[in-house]
Amino acid sequence: MNENVKFLGTRVPFPNYVPPVTAWLEHGPFVMWLVQKMQPQTIVELGTHFGYSFFAMCEATVQAKLNTSCHAIDTWEGDEHAGRYGAEVYNSVSKHNAAYEQFASLHKSTFAEAVATFEDNSIDLLHVDGRHFYEDVKEDFEQWIPKLSTSAVVLFHDTEVRERDFGVYRYWAEVSANRLALNFRHGHGLGVLFWGSEISDNLQDLARFSKQNDLRKVVLDFFECAGAAMRERHHAATQIAAIDERINDLNVANGFLEKKLCGKDSIIEELRLEVSLLREKVLFSQKRPHKLLLNLFEYKILKGLLLSGSLISQRTRKRFSRSADRRDPNVIHFNLR
Question: Phi and psi at residue 128, in whole multiples of 5°?
Answer without folding.
Answer: -105, 110
